[in-house]
Amino acid sequence: MADDLLSRHRAVLPDWLALFYQEPIEIVSGDGRRVTDSLGRTYLDFFAGILTNAVGYDIAEISDAVRAQLDSGVLHTSTLYLIRNQVELAERIAKLSGIKDAKVFFTNSGTEANETALMLATQFRHSDQVIALRNSYHGRAFATVGITGNRGWKASSLSPVKVSYVHGGYRSRGPFASFSDQDYVAACVDDLRDVLNVTTSGDVACMIAEPIQGVGGFNVPPDGMLGAFKEVLDEYGILFVADEVQTGWGRTGEHFWGIQAHGFVPDMMTFAKGLGNGLAIGGVVARPDVMDCLGASSISTFGGNPISTAGAKAALDYILEKDLQANAAKVGSQLINGLRDVSEEHPVVADVRGKGLMIGIELVGPDGRTPSPEAAARFMEHTKARGLLVGKGGLYGNVIRLAPPMTLTEEEAEEGLGILTESIVAVDKEIAG
Ligand code: PMP
Asked: Which domain of life is it from (predicted)?
C-alpha cells in the first residue's frame, strides 16, 4: 500500500478490529458487482461489504436520491423534527413486515437495532432473561455481545441481560447432527423446553434468532423450526425477535424475510446492512404495544436521518421493482448447484449450504471432518489472487461465505464459480498434501 495505510491503521485503530487477508485491501470505488482497490486491482465482489451492498455499486437511482437530499442543504436534523423520508420508509417497512399495525424505529447499525429490541422486550416483559441460539451473532455492544453465542466474537463476558442458549444454530456439528429434519426440530424443541425449565424462571423476555446464522457460517435450520419454537414460547408469553440483519430484503430468494420460512410473524424484527446499500441505517419493526411500552421519551440524533433514509427508500424501491428476490433465488441456485458438483470430488469441502445469495462452503482437514480455518484462510487468498472477494465465518473460522449483491447476473455467477472451483482444487491439494 503506497502510504502504508496498514501500519497507520494498526497504530491508531483497535487491535480487535478483524481484517481480512494477509495484505488487507483498501477499496476505493465500485461499479455494479465489482470493486477496485487502491492499487488499481478490480475484484468481483461476492461478499458485498458483509451483505451491505444489497443492490451493488454506483447505482444511479440511489446516488441520485442521496445527492438530491444533499443538494437541499439538509445534512442532518435528528428525530426532534419531522423527517419525511423517515416516515415514508417506516410506512413501507411496517407494511412489508406483516406485523399488524407495526411501528418502526430507525438506528444506525444492526447492533443498535438489536440493543433497542432487547430494551423493548425486557421492558415489555419486566424480565432480564433472554434465550438465544448457540453460535449466534447479534452485535458488538454491551447487551448484543451478551447474547452472542460464539466465543470468537464474545468480546466481554459481562452482560446486562441473562442469556440462555439453545440448540438450533450450528446443526452440522452439534449432538443432533445425524438426525433427520423432523427429529432435529423435535430435539431442539425439547432442548428449548428443558432450558426454559432449568436455566430460567420461565418469565423470559424474548427469544432472539437469526433465521439463517450469518457470522456463524450461514447455517440453515429446517423450515418451520423457529415456528415450532414460537409455539413453546407462546405458552409462556415470551416474545420472538427475528434478527433479519443478514436475511432481510429478499436475500434468501424464497422469501422477503428469512423468518417467513418458519411460518409465523414475529413480535419484532431487526434489520440493517442491505437496506442502506452502503449507507448507515438499521432499525426495529415491532408490534405497536411492544414498541410503545417505554415509560420515558427517547431520541436519536442520527437514526433515520434524511440522507440514509433517502438512500434506503431508493434501495428498497430498486429491490422491489427489479424483483431482486427472484434473481437471488435464480443465481443462488446456480451457484449452490455448481459448488455442490465441484465439492463431490474434493474432500476439503465438507458441506455447501445456503438459500438464495447466502451460501456457505464448510472446509475441513484431510480427515474429512476436522474444521480447517487454515483451508479457509488459504481459500480467501486464492480467490483474492484470482480477482474475487469472498467472506469467511463460522465458529471455527472455516466456512467461506458468499453473499454477492442481489443484482448478480448469471454470467457473473459463472465467472465467480470458475474462480471458486479453481480455489477449491488448489486448497484441496494443499491441505491433503
Ligand atoms: N445481527 C446480525 C445477524 C449480524 O450479522 C450483524 C453484523 N454482522 C449484526 C447484527 C450487527 O450489525 P452491525 O455490524 O451493523 O452493528
From this structure: Bacteria
* Nearest protein Cα to ligand 1, atom 8: 215
To the question of pTM greater than 0.95 for the whole model, the response is yes
Contacting residues for 297 by C-beta, under 8 A, at least 6 apart = none
Atom 16 of ligand 1, residue of closest alpha carbon: 111
Assess whether the C-beta atom of 246 lies below 6 angstroms from ligand 1. Answer: yes
* Helices 225-236 and 181-198: angle between axes, nearest 10 degrees: 30
Reported as a single tens digit per residue, the pLDDT across 106-155 is: 999 999 999 999 999 999 999 999 999 999 999 999 999 999 999 999 99
For ligand 1, the distance from its centroid to the CA atom of residue 110, given in whole angstroms, is: 5
* Cell numbers representing residue 158 in the block: 459481562
Q: Whose CA is nearest to atom 10 of ligand 1?
A: 138
Q: Tell me the torsion sign for CA atoms 328, 330, 333, 338.
A: negative
Position 50 pLDDT exceeds 90: no
Give pLDDT tens digits for 186-227. 999 999 999 999 999 999 999 999 999 999 999 999 999 999
Q: Alpha-carbon distance 181 to 340, whole Å?
A: 20
Report the nearest atom of ligand 1 relative to the CA of 136.
3
Reported as a single tens digit per residue, the pLDDT across 331-364 is 999 999 999 999 999 999 999 999 999 999 999 9
282 vs 104: CA distance, rounded Å: 10
Q: Is 113 in the pocket of ligand 1 (CB under 6 A)?
A: no
Question: Residue 298 and residue 277: Cα distance in Å, rounded?
Answer: 27
Pocket of ligand 1 contains residue 243 by CB under 6 Å: yes
Q: Considering the domain 4-59+323-432, what is its CATH architecture? A: Alpha-Beta Complex (3.90)
> Could you tell me the three cell numbers for 22?
494477509
What does the domain layout of the chain look like in residue ranges?
A: 4-59+323-432, 74-322
Q: Say if ligand 1 is within 6 A of residue 50 CB.
A: yes
CA of 264 to the centre of ligand 1 (A): 23
Nearest alpha carbon, ligand 1 atom 14? 110
Query: What Cα–Cα distance (Å) separates residue 4 from each residue in 11, 38, 389?
Result: 11, 11, 22
Instruction: Determine the CATH number of domain 74-322.
Output: 3.40.640.10
Q: Which three cell numbers stand for residue 292?
A: 410503545
**Helix locations, 127-241, DSSP H:** 142-146, 181-198, 225-236
Ligand 1 proximity of 245 Cβ (cutoff 6 Å): yes
User: Across all residues in the chain, what is the average pLDDT?
Assistant: 96
